[in-house]
Amino acid sequence: MKAVALKRYLPIANPESLLDVDLPRPTPQGRDLLVAVKAIAVNPVDTKVRAPKDKIEDTPRVLGWDAVGVVEAIGADVTGFKVGDRVFYAGDITRPGSNSEFQLVDERIVGHAPASLSVEQAAALPLTAITAWEALFERLRVPRKAASGKAPSILIIGGAGGVGSIAIQLAAKVVGLNVIATASRPESEKWVRELGAQQVIDHFDDIPAQLKEIGFGQVDYVLILNDTDKHFPAAADAIAPQGTIATIVENSGPLDVSLLKAKSAGFVWEFMFTRSMFQTPDMGEQGKLLNEIAALIDQGVIRTTLSKVLSPINAANLRQAHADLEGGRVIGKIVLKDF
Description:
InterPro entries: ADH-like_N, ADH_Zn_typ-1, ER, GroES-like_sf, Lipid_raft_assoc_Zn_ADH, NAD(P)-bd_dom_sf. Helix content is 29%, strand content 28%.
């Protein structure tokens, strides 16, 4: 089968950083689905895993953690899917990724793809939707039903990226939070407002001061999607007493969590691969939430965050997508379709 893989971890400008290869087609066992991949999306995790380091792979390593495809075959223990089903998923970082014609994925972390979307539109969703959903409803513990009275507020730092684009929609359109998103350019500000952000501030300027200017001395929730080291002090300043901060971005230095003590405020991580990596008993929750996302899409409550499509799926186009992401100015999601 065709695939795009790496053998060495190189700068993306190097033509050998991602290679077109031919690999054996895998066979499903147990709860695995064998999916014929039709479209994939690229995420920051792809560039982080591929980042230069002194390591050589004995066999080509396939990256990619976002896919839409059709079930080609199933393992003996599969109960929720059949051959021919159209599915979407982010997959498992401990297994070969989605940048290949066929991929094995555990049925528990797979959803039925939205019926109303094309394969490229649907491919933009899984990883960011899982991350945003888990961050809001499981880490920050935002109530699924809006409370009476004044709507709680959330500050989403890095609102125009893939996760932010879904988090804004879920927060504003599904649970009715007052969403303040950060964006630094006119085009990204326009994007986050269209998705449902009521207020927009610039993450390159003084965040607490800007919040005060728009009438928010403090917010009930903060979701950090960009540069935890830089933004944690501002988040700690902005969070309300007994509020919670969540981040998806690893820190490079110590964070002063003592800033949260007087407020009895919480700090929590979201990593969407935790369930599959540790085979947690609730691993199937990811499949369920993907089905809920598909329903919200098909009902017109939220929309895809696709912003750019490249075709076909090959090493040259994947190198371009990685380079675009590393440039730090991508709005929404980049998707590749068709081998």
